[in-house]
Known about the structure:
Layout: H1 5-13, H2 19-24, H3 26-29, H4 35-44, E1 46-50, H5 56-66, E2 70-74, H6 99-110, E3 115-119, H7 128-132, E4 137-140, H8 145-158, E5 161-168, E6 171-177, H9 185-188, H10 201-204, H11 210-227, E7 236-241, E8 246-251, H12 273-276, E9 295-296, H13 298-306, E10 312-315, H14 319-324, E11 331-332, H15 338-341, E12 351-354, H16 359-370, E13 376-379, H17 382-389
Parallel strand pairs: 1-2, 1-4, 2-3, 4-5, 9-13, 10-11, 10-12, 12-13
Antiparallel strand pairs: 5-6, 6-7, 7-8
Helix pairs in contact: 1-4, 5-6, 5-11
Amino acid sequence: MVNFLDSLGTRAEAINLSPQEIARYSRHLIMPEVALEGQKRLKASRVLLIGAGGLGSPLGLYLAAAGVGRIGLVDFDVVDFSNLQRQILHGTADVGRPKLQSAKDRILAVNPETQIDLYETRLTSANALKILEPYDLVIDGTDNFPTRYLVNDACVLLKKTNIYGSIFRFDGQASVFAPGQGPCYRCLYPEPPPPGEVPSCAEGGVLGILPGLIGCIQATEAVKLILGKGSPLIGRLLLYDALQMSFQEFKVRRNPKCPVCGDKPTITQLIDYEQFCGIRGEEPHANGSVANQVDITADELKARLDRKEKVFILDVRNPEEYQICRIPGSQLLPLPDLPNRFRELDPNQEMIVHCKSGMRSQKAVNFLREQGFGKLKNLKGGILAWVDGIDPSMPKY
C-alpha cells in the first residue's frame, strides 16, 4: 500500500460532497472503482505539481477536473509566446504574466472548488523539503536534470511518492517512484548526462501534443494512487514514441547500492544539484581561463561588423533553427556534425561561435580548443541576445 493512503482515508471520512459536487462528479460516482468513497478521497487529497508548463498544464487541468481538493504549483517563470504551442494552461492574453497566476485562473475556471497553493520560486535544496512536506503526492513536470534529482531526493527523504514524466521531441517517458516499494529516479539514472549532452526542449524542440499525453499519464497514475486502485507504474518505466505511436515498458529494480534509497544511503540531506550535474557556472579551461573570459557580446560583435572587420561567425545550431533566423554572413556547422567536420575550419582564423542561447556554442568552443583552435569567442546569449539587442525584427523562437 502506498504510504499516504491511511491518512488520506481518515481525512476523507470527514469530507462531504455538496449537491453541486455530486452533479459535477456524477460520471465518477457511478463507477464502482471510484464511487462516493473514492470521490471523497480525491477531494481530501493534496498534490504538488513541480512546474506549470508543458506537463503541468494537463496535470493541473485534469486533476482539478477530477476533484483533487488541494493542488500546489511551483514555478517562477512568465508566459512566453514560445510556450503556447504546448502549455495549454496559458493563452495569448497571458503572455508576460507569471505562469502561476495564469495557471491559477485557468484551473479555477475548470473547478472553483479546488484549493490552489502557489509557490512562485525556484525549487532549491534550501526550500524543497518545506514545500513538499504538506502534500500526499509529488508530480515532477520539470525539464532539467538538477531539479529532477532534487525532487527525487527530497521525495525519498520525506518518503513521498514521486510521479515522474519527461518529454523530448517525439518521445516521452513516465514512471512512479514510491519509497520503500520500488526504485527511485537515481536507481534508473544513477548519474546525470554530461552537460550539454542532452538538449533541452528549447534547443531540441518538442511536439506540442506530447506533453498532453505524458501529463495525462501522470495524472492518471495520481488518481489511481489516491483511489488505491489498479497497478501503478512502480518499478516500471513506460516509453512512448509518438512517431511510431508505440508504447514500450521496461522493468526497473531498486538498486541496493543507490546513494539515496539503497540499503546504506550516503545522501541523507539535500545537496548542490547544479554542481552534481556539472553545470555550475564558469568552468576552468586547460589554459587556466574561464568560459566568460572568451565571450563576446552582441553589441561588441555588431561594432566589429560595422567597422567592416573580417569576422568569421560559426553557427552551431541545427539546420531547422538556421532557417528561422540567422546572423548575416554566418556559416552553419551543426554541433552534432562538428567532431567529423571540424577540419573544414581554419584553426588559425579567429571565430565567433554562436547557438541559440550560448550553451551549445560554449561546448563547441571547448571542443575546438581541444583540437588546437586558439582564436575563439563565444557569443554571449547566442542569437537570442542578437535579436533582443541588435535586430528585433528577426523572429525569435
